[in-house]
UniProtKB/TrEMBL annotation:
Domain of life: Bacteria
Designated name of the protein: Outer membrane lipid asymmetry maintenance protein MlaD
InterPro entries in the cross-refs: ABC_MlaD (IPR030970), Mce/MlaD (IPR003399), MlaD_Phospholipid_Transporter (IPR052336)
NCBIfam families: OM_asym_MlaD
Domain called Mce/MlaD: residue spans: 39-116
Length: 156
């Protein structure tokens, strides 16, 4: 009888460990088990969305206030359209707020940072952030630097 109790205890302990690892993996990947709660959608148009992915964080002052739910191409303006799902408790963002695609560290993941504007009208469900700053592509920056240094050498 004591052997059976020991086996059941070890089994329960092992199941708890597997469940803890599963929850940790879901948390790290950005997936959630339950509903997101009270949220609203806002759209932003960017010239270049290089490296930004669905489920990327949306932050303001370093605090996560939402996530990217969709990325697609606007067929009329040929710009990238990003759908942001913002937390309902952040319902006082001015309409003239700025959305920028930022990089965590030098070569880290891309996320969207919101800078607050000064207008009294606030963003609502379905609003568009018009003032955006696109992603900085490291390869383009290096190419411009090399092209400028070649042009300077030819001029001398």
């Amino acid at each position: 009888m004591q052997n059976r109790t020991l086996e059941i205890g070890v089994g329960l302990f092992l199941m708890a460990g597997v469940l803890a690892l599963l929850l940790l993996a879901l948390r790290v990947s950005g997936l959630s088990v339950g509903s997101a709660g009270d949220t609203y959608k806002v759209y932003a148009y960017f010239d270049n969305i290089a490296g930004l992915t669905v489920r990327a964080k949306v932050t303001m002052a370093g605090v996560s206030i939402g996530k990217v739910t969709a990325i697609d191409l606007d067929r009329d303006s040929y710009m990238g359209r990003v759908t942001l799902e913002l937390d309902g408790n952040v319902d006082n963002l001015p309409e003239d707020s700025t959305a920028s695609i930022l990089t965590a560290g030098l070569l880290g993941e891309k996320y969207i940072g919101i800078s607050v504007g000064g207008e009294e009208a606030v963003l609502k469900d379905g609003s568009t952030i018009h003032d955006t700053q696109s992603s900085l592509v490291l390869e383009d920056l290096i190419g411009k630097f090399l092209l400028n240094s070649v042009n300077k050498d030819e001029a001398n």
